[in-house]
C-alpha cells in the first residue's frame, strides 16, 4: 500500500509484484473458469453484434477495481465496463489522481468464440503519462510488463523490438473492418501499397505485444479508448519502439489525437506508416 508522500515510481519499486498477483488472480478466478464454458445468458451486446461483454469481463473488472484501488489509496480505476455504464467516469484519465486503466478481457469476441487470442490489460498513469503496464494472456500464461525507464519484459525476459529486416514487407495490424467507419476504411486503404502487408487486428493488447517482440512491425488503429492502448503503447516504447499520430505527434491517452495512429518497432517504420496514412507518399 502506498505511503504518505510516496511517488508512483517508489510505489512501483515496491509493489509491481502485488499488481501482477492481482492480474493473475482476476484471470484465474473470473476469466479462465468461463473460457469455453460461457452460457448464452453470460454474453451480452453493448453497441452492436461486434461489441460484446461477458460475465467474465464484468466480474474480472470488479475484482481488479477493488484490488488495485486497495494497493494505491487515492487512485481511481477507469475500466471499460464501468465507463460503458457511466461514460463520465472516463474523465478521470485527465484528472490529478493516479489512474488504473483496465480492460478485463481485451479480445472479448475471441474469448466468446473459445479462441486463445485474448488478454487482460492494466496500466497505471497520471497526468496523461503511463508509468507501468501489465499484459496478461491467460490462455498460455504469458505476462508482459513494462515500467517507464526500466524496460519491457515477457515472462522475465527483456524485450527488444529492433528494426524490421531490410527489404521485407512491413507487417501491419490495422483496425478490424467490423469496427471502422467508411471514412476510416478509406484512411487505412492507404496501407495497401507495395512493401506493406496490412491485416485486420485481433486483440489490441496482443498486437502491441507482437510489435514489442518484433513479430509484427506496426499497428494502425483508428480509435482512442485508453484501455485498449495504454498498456501496449508503454510496452512498445520500453522495447525500443515508438508511436505517432497522423500529424506526427505521440499518441495521447487523454484523447484529442489525429487518427489513425501507429505504434511501430522503430521510428523509421512509424514515420513510414504515418506518411502513408497522411497520403504523403
UniProtKB/TrEMBL annotation:
Cofactor(s), by name: Mg(2+)
Signal peptide stretch: none
The keyword Hydrolase appears for this protein: yes
InterPro entries on file: Inositol_monoP_metal-BS, Inositol_monophosphatase-like, Inositol_monophosphatase_CS
One of the record's GO molecular function terms: inositol monophosphate 1-phosphatase activity
Pfam family, one: Inositol_P
Reaction(s) catalysed by this chain's protein: a myo-inositol phosphate + H2O = myo-inositol + phosphate
GO biological process, any: phosphatidylinositol phosphate biosynthetic process
EC number(s) on file: 3.1.3.25
Binding site for Mg(2+): 80, 103, 106, 228
Disordered: region residues: 161-180
Assigned keywords, A-Z: Hydrolase, Magnesium, Metal-binding
Metal-binding as UniProt keyword: yes
Name the record gives this protein: inositol-phosphate phosphatase
Originating organism: Streptomyces tendae
Lineage of the organism: Bacteria, Bacillati, Actinomycetota, Actinomycetes, Kitasatosporales
Amino acid at each position: 500500500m502506498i505511503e504518505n508522500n510516496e511517488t508512483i515510481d517508489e510505489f512501483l519499486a515496491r509493489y509491481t509484484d502485488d499488481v501482477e498477483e492481482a492480474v493473475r488472480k482476476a484471470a484465474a478466478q473470473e476469466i479462465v473458469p468461463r473460457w469455453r464454458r460461457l452460457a448464452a445468458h453470460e454474453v451480452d451486446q453493448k453497441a452492436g453484434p461486434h461489441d460484446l461483454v461477458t460475465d467474465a469481463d464484468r466480474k474480472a473488472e470488479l475484482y481488479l477495481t477493488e484490488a488495485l484501488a486497495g494497493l494505491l489509496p487515492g487512485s481511481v480505476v477507469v475500466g471499460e465496463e464501468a465507463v460503458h455504464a457511466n461514460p463520465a467516469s472516463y474523465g478521470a484519465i485527465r484528472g490529478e489522481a493516479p489512474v488504473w486503466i483496465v480492460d478485463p478481457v481485451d479480445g472479448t469476441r475471441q474469448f466468446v468464440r473459445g479462441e486463445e487470442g485474448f488478454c487482460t490489460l492494466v496500466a497505471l498513469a497520471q497526468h496523461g503519462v503511463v508509468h507501468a503496464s501489465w499484459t496478461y494472456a491467460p490462455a498460455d500464461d504469458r505476462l508482459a510488463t513494462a515500467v517507464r525507464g526500466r524496460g519491457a519484459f515477457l515472462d522475465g525476459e527483456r524485450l527488444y523490438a529492433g528494426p524490421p529486416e531490410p527489404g521485407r514487407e512491413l507487417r501491419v495490424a490495422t483496425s478490424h473492418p467490423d469496427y471502422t467507419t467508411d471514412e476510416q476504411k478509406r484512411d487505412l486503404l492507404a496501407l495497401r501499397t507495395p512493401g506493406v502487408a496490412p491485416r485486420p487486428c485481433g486483440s489490441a493488447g496482443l498486437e502491441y505485444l507482437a510489435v514489442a517482440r518484433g513479430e509484427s512491425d506496426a499497428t494502425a488503429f483508428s480509435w482512442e479508448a485508453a484501455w485498449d492502448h495504454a498498456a501496449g503503447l508503454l510496452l512498445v516504447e520500453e522495447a525500443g519502439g515508438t508511436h505517432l499520430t497522423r500529424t506526427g505527434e505521440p499518441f495521447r491517452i487523454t484523447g484529442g489525437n489525429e487518427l489513425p495512429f501507429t505504434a511501430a518497432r522503430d521510428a523509421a517504420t512509424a514515420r513510414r506508416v504515418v506518411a502513408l496514412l497522411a497520403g504523403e507518399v
